[in-house]
């Protein structure tokens, strides 16, 4: 099917008169994406697949909602928010619900703990804390991390200790492999690069360590 066929079927079969081949091409290239539940449902229908297959792995609040096929009104009503307030949170990717509303949202959208942290906008702060815990004294970050991630204290301590060890072990092993960084070699630079790569993916390491400990 070419873009013109997809656009025609969305107009004729799903009553979306504004869908043009150019809009379909923009969706294909990732320039934009379907902005309403009706668009995603229609596109999935035309392509004979589920909305979830089009979304892939959802990351944002809007993507999780579309993945499960809910209209904004459904989510707003379920969590006890005015529709305009909910739409504003979704548009700005900034969840401001209460703890109970967050719990309801998590159940409704079947959010894992990592997904809930990302959707509620706490991932950047958590990433910063984890980077500091890995590079400095991890003990100082148990309480700040615990305020964001509701995990058992012992599990959290073990996880931060593991991240700290992994970061320093990786940097040290790279230095040894590179000759210790002396004599103008690249050992020091390689250690910096290796350590930076670990820090860039520190939140992935964090969740992987938690899953390994609890699985």
SSE inventory with pairings:
Elements: H1 3-14, H2 21-28, H3 37-46, H4 51-55, H5 61-67, H6 72-79, H7 83-91, H8 99-108, H9 113-119, H10 123-135, H11 142-148, H12 153-177, H13 187-200, H14 202-214
Helix pairs in contact: 1-2, 1-3, 6-7, 10-11, 10-12, 12-13, 12-14
The helix fraction, in percent, is: 55-70%
Q: Report the principal-axis shape.
A: elongated
| Proportion of residues in extended strands | under 5%
Contiguous runs where pLDDT drops below 50 for at least 5 residues: none
Number of helices: 14
* Structural classification: mainly alpha
Question: How many distinct beta strands?
Answer: 0
* Biggest β-sheet strands, sense, barrel: none
Radius of gyration: 23 Å
The separation of the N and C termini measures: 44 Å
From N to C, what is the helix and strand string? HHHHHHHHHHHHHH
Kindly report the average pLDDT value: 86
């Amino acid at each position: 099917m070419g873009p013109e066929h997809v656009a025609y079927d969305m107009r004729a079969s799903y009553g979306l008169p504004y869908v043009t081949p150019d809009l379909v091409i923009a969706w294909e290239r990732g320039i934009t994406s379907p902005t309403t539940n009706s668009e995603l449902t229609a596109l999935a229908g035309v392509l004979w697949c589920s909305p979830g297959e089009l979304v892939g792995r959802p990351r944002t609040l809007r993507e999780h909602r579309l993945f499960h096929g809910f209209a904004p009104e459904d989510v707003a009503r379920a969590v006890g928010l005015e529709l305009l307030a909910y739409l504003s949170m979704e548009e700005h990717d900034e969840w401001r619900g209460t703890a109970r509303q967050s719990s309801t949202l998590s159940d409704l959208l079947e959010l894992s703990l990592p997904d809930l942290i990302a959707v509620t906008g706490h991932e950047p702060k958590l990433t910063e804390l984890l980077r500091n815990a890995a590079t400095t004294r991890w003990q100082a970050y148990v309480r700040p991390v615990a305020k964001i991630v509701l995990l058992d204290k012992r599990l959290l301590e073990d996880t931060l200790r593991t991240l700290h060890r992994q970061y320093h072990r990786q940097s040290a092993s790279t230095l040894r492999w590179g000759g210790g960084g002396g004599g103008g070699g690249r050992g020091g630079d390689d250690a910096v690069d290796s350590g930076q790569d670990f820090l860039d993916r520190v939140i992935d390491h964090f969740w992987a360590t938690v899953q390994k400990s609890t699985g």
